[in-house]
Structures are given as C-alpha cells and as structure tokens.
Amino acid sequence: MASNFSRILSSKQRIGVLTFVGGSVTAGFLLHRQHVGAAAPVRRSYPASADYPDLRKHNNCMASSLTPAIYAKLCDKATPNGYTLDLAIQTGVDNPGHPFIKTVGMVAGDEESYEVFSDLLDPIIKERHNGYDPSTMKHPTDLDASKIHSGNFDPRYVLSSRVRTGRSIRGLSLPPACTRAERREVERVVVDALAGLHGDLDGKYYSLTQMTDGEQQQLIDDHFLFDKPVSPLLTCAGMARDWPDARGIWHNNEKTFLVWVNEEDHTRVISMEKGGNMKRVFERFCKGLLEVERLIQERGWEFMWNERLGYVLTCPSNLGTGLRAGVHVKLPLLSKDPRLSKILDNLRLQKRGTGGVDTAAVGGVFDISNLDRLGLSEVQLVQTVVDGVNYLIECEKRLEKGQDIKVPPPPLKQFK
Amino acid sequence: MPFGDAHNQVKMKFSSEEEYPDLSKHNNHMSKVLTAALYERLRSKQTPSGFTLDDIIQTGVDNPGHPFIMTVGCVAGDEETYEVFKELLDPVIEDRHGGYKPSDKHKTDLTSSNLKGGDDLDPDYVLSSRVRTGRSVRGFCLPPHCSRGERRAVEKLSIEALASLSGDLNGKYYALKNMTDAEQQQLIDDHFLFDKPVSPLLLSSGMGRDWPDARGIWHNDNKTFLVWVNEEDHLRVISMQKGGNMKEVFNRFCTGLTKIETLFKERNHAFMWNEHLGYVLTCPSNLGTGLRAGVHVKLPNMSKNAKFEEVLKKLRLQKRGTGGVDTAAVGGVFDISNADRLGFSEVELVQMVVDGVKLLVEMEKKLEKGQSIDDIMPAQK
C-alpha cells in the first residue's frame, strides 16, 4: 500500500534498509526482538483522517473499538516484520458483519501484533472474552488431564467427544502475513516433530500438494480433510494465499489425534473419538500437545505463549487456551424446551449443529461446547463442559420421565 | 494482499529458492515466464510506492489457471510496476499481445472521423453496439495497491471532472455506498450496476479491499455513456446503444474520453500513458488501447458452421456469450469484439470490428439461403 511503505524514501533508516536489498544475511536487525516495539514509523501520503475506514455500517469488535483517535495513533506503526494496522483490520473493514453475530473483525499477522496494536486489541479482547483485561490479568495454563472427574458420559446420549486447539510457532509470522518460505518452515518444523510421536500417537502426514486421489478420498470419508477457506472473513485476511502450498494434515494411525498444518493457524490440534469418554480424549490431547512441544523444543523452537494472553493464535477469539471441547449429544426433548438457551448460557456452553459453526441441529443432536477461551485454564474449561453436559443429560432423563427440570444458577462473574 | 517493502525485507532473510512459488501445476502467462532465476533477480525490488514482485504475482500463484484458458496471472500496483519489473512484464506482454516487443511503439488514435463506415450494420442482426476502455490517473496507485485515502482521492477527482460534462453528456454520479434502493434497482434494470468482484482472479490481487468505499457509477441522462469508478481500474469508460450504429457509439466514446481527459488536465492530473505501452491499466491484458469494441449479433447459422472459429481468428475477433467473458451464447446471439488491445490504435480496432461484423452478417445471410461462404472467406488480418 502506497503510503504505508514510503518510509524507505524518507528516513535515515534508508541506508540501513538498503543494505538488505542485496540479499545478505539480515539476522541482526530483523531477528533482534529484545523489545517488542514497533518498527520505524511508516510514512503515509495521506493523513490518518483520509485513510480512516468507513465503519458506519459495521458491527464487529474492531469497528466498535477503532475510533479515529486510535487509528491515528496506530496507523503509522508496524511490527518488526512490517505488519501494519491496515493489514490487521482489513478483514473487518471488508466484512461489516451481521446484526446478530458479532465477529472479531481483525487478525494478528505475528506475535508482535498483540503488542504493537494493543491499544486496539486489548479492548477487543476485553469485549470478546467477558471483560478479561490483558493489561492487568494473567491467563492460567493447565494441561494436567488427571484433574478431570466424571468425564465419561452416558453413551446412550453422547455420540462423540472432541477437543481442539491451535498452536503457533514462535519466530514465524502467522497465516495472514507469513511468506511462502515461513509457511514452509512451519510445515517442516511441525511435520518433523510429529514424526517423533510413537505408540498410540504413531501417524502420518499428508501434504495437500502431494496427496494421491486415494488418500484424498480416505481423508474426506474420515471427515479429516480441510479445504481452501471460502469464508471472506478468512480470505480477506490473506490466509488463503499460495494455497495449497505447505498445507497438510497429519493424523495418528488410530485416527483419534489429528493436526492441521497452515490452515487458519500454524497448527490446529484435534483429539476425538466416538462415544462419551471425554476424559480419555482430553488425556490424549494433553499428552500429544506436550509431546509435540517437547519435540519442537529439542530442535530449538517453541510455541507462542505469554502469561497475558496464553497461547497466541491468529484470531483474538482463540487466545488463551484456544480450546473448544465439545460433544455430539442427543437431546431431543430438551431441544424443544424453551429454557434450553438460558440453561446453556448459565452453564457457559454454546450449541451448534453437528456440521459445526453456523449449522443447524438435526434430529435433536447438538454440538455442545465451551463458550470461553481466555482467562480460564484448559482443565477448567473441559471440566465446565463435563459438568454442563452431565447436567444436560440429567435434564433430558428427567424430561423422559415426565419430571420437571431446573435452570441452573448463572456462574459468578469472572473478570470484574 | 499488498504488504510492501518492510515485509519484503523480511523475506530476504530466506533464500530465493525457499520463497519461489510452486508453479508446477500452473498455466498462466506469469507462470510461463517466472523462472526461479528471474524470481531471484527481481525479488528484492520494489516500486517507489512499495509494490513488490510477490504483490504482482499473488493472483497468478493463487489461481493456477485452466488448461484451455490462458490468464495473465499478474497485475500492476502503480505505473512504475511496468518499468521496475519489465524483465517479467515485457515477456508477459509479448506473449499476451501477439509478439509485441519491448521496443515497439503503440499508436493512439481517438479521432473518430477516421473510422470508415460503421453506421450501417444491419439492425435485424446487430442488436447493440458498445465500446469500452479504461483510464488510470497518473500519480495514484492502482486498485490492487491503493490506500483508502488514495482511492477516495481518485473518486473525488472523477466526480468533479464528470460533473463538468454537459449537453448529451450531462449526467449524475451514484456512489455505491450511498445509493438508495430505488437507484440501485434502476441501475440493475439498466444493466449498469457493477457488483463487488467475486472472481478469485481479482480478489487475490487485492482489488476488492474496502468495498464499496469510493466506488461508484456515473452515467449520462441518455444512458449511452457510462463511467465506472474504482472497480477493476481507476476508471472504466463505456459508450453503448441499441442497434448497429457503431460509428455513433465510437463518436460519443472519443468525444467523451477526450473531454474527460481535458477536465482532468485542468485539475493538473494526466492519465497514465506512454508511447510504448499506450494507456497503462491494472491488468497487462488491457494495455495499449484498453479497448473492447463489440456488438451483440444474431449468428445462429454461422455458430453452427465449421468455419466460424477460423473466420473469427482471421478477422482478429473473439466471441463471448452475451453475459460477457466466460458466458455462453444464448439463442445464437453472440458478443463479438476485437481480440487485440495493444499495437493497434483505437480507430484500427473499431474498424476491424465494423468490417468484420459486416462480413459475418453477410455470411449469416448466405447460410440462411443455403449458399456457401467459401468465396467470401477473409484473409488473415
């Protein structure tokens, strides 16, 4: 974009930047990230007021928080990788949103985005995550699955159990901003680490660019295959660039542990199985995640994590744990009860159809999962789902017997 | 999506090999030209506004193409793109524009009186006539790269210039984001309204950003002269009317364009133009004249004739369905237009369409009577 990057013509930095043009090793300047400050100011051809987006018809978290003043303050900043505010908000400018569904409306291009653009991202995070204030609070991480109790559901009701999250590789840009080489590096690092998994986690990687028709069909039949994003929320953020280069799917031989590489995040990690043994699903989830973390650390890499934000992912909605633990559960009687929404709200759960987000429930079968992501640990969130689903099953059983059900009390306010 | 030079410097810490796109399944002009060696030579460059090689080629990387349709696979972000990246764009231009060499000069001729005939195409066959082109305002970045401030400045300038048109060119501007439902319906009924691009060819290059900010449609009261602002190019200019009087359409086209250019110059803005590439537009396929002159013409018998394609090729014409590019012909009605854009002047291209369509209608009439068309087969133009 014209105005953002004209700084090469103006500042004293010109000499410094021009020395990189020859392709020499630039480790010193660009990899040096002791302080996460912005890069040198970006010169614009137009004042901030001329470039400020028209958000009058918009309804997303970015539009709610991006005042002209904040825009003016941040529009000249860039992360050390050169990611700018305009790039971060493009998806929210291009997708005004819906009166009933409030999308986030911005993404991070790298780990530093959350620092450099904190004046905008902190209020967005607060709005999206129930008042969690990244400037003052700490996020707890807890992957000790042994703490889960009562996590084996009645299989007459719970058809399947699943836990997913994402992980980003520190030092490499995120999907909206990564170069082809960075994306390929993510693939290399992750596939290398996954190759070190053994036992029930022994598995195989299928690159999207190289899979055979047979492999593709099998992955579709297993419901493992992900396709190029079509949602404009994602494509406007630049996440689909260079598709399908460096994208792929890894899964264990038992088909209970699955990793997506370079889809919406560097990695998406999924543990799942038929039936109601959520505790076992979560045990495998934690074991797999911790093992992968150990394997990448052996090679000198680590996940993006900090105590303000927990695990750092592309979308601010997935910060903290990035965790969605859910079940497919049969609740035909409860599904017709007008109190269901309130019950779910108070249990801190959300319902979706079994096709995932934005689908409808079919035959009284719902996808029930945790609402929260940040400010509560993985163990806390999974326990919330366990307790909540057990409660819903109790309600269904009571309704089957013609008994009445109670709406549970709302939880204590968490972040005030 | 355009990232610019700071991001480009980050890429330089990786080797060219690590960054070079995988083009093994690709079939577009860019993929045919961009070898690994060329990528290495060009990847550290950028235009003064910060447009880089990866910005240029993103659309071609994301859209491998089709075995039968050759897309261009690259776009310009500003006027300087064609200079800074000439090592890539010159061969692309040469492939796309019939061997046009880096040393060739392009002739511009908007003197419509130089057109011979064109006012007598048989209206029983020729249903409508249309001429379109594009113009870019010098000093502003092009749709893949412009900031919101720039795009709005182009819109403001265009509104001011168009507001000064008078007589049969007196008209009104409709901003996409401000139009009423009634205005929108009228524009749809008139077939004037353009919508947000859905083609991934366009979206991958960043042209859809900030939609519908600073986009709009201007047309004259007579609905025969239309200007699109900030769609695929800064300006797209269209002259059209029912029937076969291409001469009148072209007269209005030239008059209108020349007036608009004068009005811009009065405000100290020129159109992007040079003697090698003619008018500079976003897509290399539209360089030179950027002109597509065409008719909707009924050719049911010709369309079933084995020699149809050959005739079109010889006449330097192309066919499309009446929905525009990538649509099929319905009821034997085709959109027939010039295949060339660069290396021929505006008058020359419209002349080819006028002469060629006249011949096609003649052939159609012969086929109707069961006669052969062999004796009036044209030579290769």
Classification by helices and strands of chain B:
alpha+beta
Number of strands of chain B: 10
Distance between the termini of chain A: 41 Å
Q: Name the pair of protein chains with the most residues at their interface, and give those residue counts.
A: A-B, 57 and 49 residues
- Beta-strand percent range of chain A: 5-15%
Distance between the termini of chain B: 41 Å
Order of helices and strands of chain B: HHHHHHHEHEHHEEEHEEEHHEEH
Strand count of chain A:
10
Note the main sheet of chain A: 8 strands, antiparallel
Annotation field: number of helices of chain A: 16
Please tell me the overall pLDDT of chain B. 93
Domain Phosphagen kinase C-terminal (chain B): 125-367
Enzyme class (chain B): transferase
Domain Phosphagen kinase N-terminal (chain B): 11-98
GO molecular function (chain B): ATP binding; creatine kinase activity
